[in-house]
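User: Batch of two.

Assistant: Item 1 of 2:
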Amino acid sequence: MANLLDQLKAVTVVVADTGDINAIEKFTPRDATTNPSLITMAAQMPEYQGIVDDTLKGARETLGADASAADVVTLAFDRLAVSFGLKILDIIPGRVSTEVDARLSYDTDATIAKGRDLIAQYEAAGISKERILIKIAATWEGIQAAAVLEKEGISTNLTLIFGLHQAIACAENGITLISPFVGRILDWYKKDTGRDSYEPAEDPGVISVTAVYNYYKKFGFETEVMGASFRNLGEITELAGNDLLTISPGLLEELQATEGDLPVKLDAAKAKDMDITEIHVDKATFEKMHAEDRMATDKLAEGIEGFEKALVNLEELLANRLSAVEA
């Protein structure tokens, strides 16, 4: 009997949710995603110190010997996610998601500029933009920025999706892919209700992603749904058949080690026949639905704040490493 990972790969695109290049080599996903927290974690691993050091040295070389340490760190910070992305693209056949600075999440123009800059960095390194997803937080401002980038031929991944209003707004704006956060939705409901656990089929995160998937397939939206932020195996197996699932190395390991039948739970053909009400989401509707959804309001703000903290930690790490490299 085949293991669950092999069976899942047959019905869903499996993506590695990590900056750990060794893990990506081990599990052979088609795509990979990163975020500030994952890049910060990877940058602290001894085996990736060379990537960090080379990025710092490259920034120093670009700016010159007279440039301040702060300026070198800022440039290296801008380049590091791309440095990891380039290493990952040497391994995988598909796309890597590289995230815009989370501190720009409510600034449409700055997000557009940063997305263009990331693509320019990849293209300067010989990588086609077709292999890159620019990852942006799904605020209303972020979605509008992504819509502009999409019209320029730059594909985007809208992350921190917690509510149907976010997902619909992304689809209506022609976004390539969205990342609804299954486990973080579960976390919120467990805290809010006081429940210790949910059965996989009753998991609020699973229910949320299933609703988004069915809505997209019912109304013919081409935006891909990539479930993310999993807490357990049951959340993953309940979403078998989804467009993509991005999974951490630990859960990939568990899937690979587990044998058993993996039934397909999501079916685009069945979704076509479902009784689902279509909603148009403009800015006013987005803001109204977001304000009425306590979970989405809490988790979007919390997610952005968490990524911002990871970025500050990464800047400190680079500053310390530069001191060591140039000592």
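Item 2 of 2:
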Amino acid sequence: MKVIETKNLGKKYIISHQGISEYQTLRETITDKAKKIVKKRSYVIPKREEFWALKNVSFNVEQGERIGIIGRNGAGKSTILKLLSRITEPSEGQIKIKGKIASLLEVGTGFHPELTGRENIFLNGAILGMSRIDIKKKFDEIVAFAEIEKFLDTPVKRYSSGMYVRLAFSIAAHLEPDILLIDEVLAVGDAQFQKKSLGKMEEVSQQQERTILFVSHNMQSINKLCKRCIWLENGSIKEDGLSETVTFNYLNLGQNKESEVNWLSEASAPGDKEYIYIKSIKIKNSNNTSTSVIFAEEDFFIEIEYVVLKTLNISQIGICLLTSEGELIFQSGDTDLSGLEIQERKPGNYISRCKIPGFLLNQGYYNISLFGHIPGIKMIINTDSILSFEIVQRYNLGGYGKQPGFLRPKLEWEIEKI
């Protein structure tokens, strides 16, 4: 049975470019009036442009399906979930939905900040159409899963982002919606809770035939949870099929094969624009030359240039190194060996540079993703594979060719006859 049907779905936004807006704040109006006294100023009507976040998107979802949605930042992933959640209306096309929907699109969605955790459980249950009796039956399970027993009667405005997410996910998963929509918000939680959440989604889908649409930058999570995956590119469906096939193609066909990526404007760059944005990421060899081909025996560097817009008291910027199949090899942040996180990054330009030693990686292709976070509070950078590179072997190191495994470290051995 089809529970979601979309046909020629489109969402259009109007973007205003440089010029003086027709609508100004009181502060802007006073400032402009003051400037007029000193200097004559010409007003320009802003140029308006249509931007299609989604265009001609059609897909159907069967009851009990678990579908992953992947794509670069700005590809339209979150827009689809907002349309399905009826947070916003489509500009064109049709959506048909059968059943109750629960959405977890951003931290604190659907919560009233002045109400306690206990009160918000009942509020969210009522929004989902549950009776008070049914909510009470699930109440203890929700609290135990969210691990917020001590803070149950505390207003949620005092919760950390992690606590928000744990409670919001627990409510959405336990109050039996027919369709569960989840955005990358789970990335805010710790690794243990992410694993626990994936297990819960798998359980409710298999045992209770609930439908799940899951947006994530983590290809391993997509492959583990979802049999089917939709790859969005520039607001349209690039590929729709088996998760392992689609994620492999996404990581390898859709990746950047250059040695560096530069973002020319703040608007197009990755990052939470309240705090930070990325200017460039580069792969450099031991000669400080940008390259996408690295010799196995040589050190190389990942260089991230970024702009801090607002003082970050505690933060970390880092990389995830993945195989061509999207398996995580390791994650490393720029404060890993500092003892304590950097206590303060003031506004300005920065470069974080990571050295990867020679004789570490095996021959093959690898992908780099970026992350940045305020520990335990907020993700401020979250991108999937931005760059790829190849490790090649320059010399014959023993005649055995490529060895099994991701790593091929050069270790010291001794041979002793006894």
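The chain has three domains: 11-50, 55-252, 260-392.
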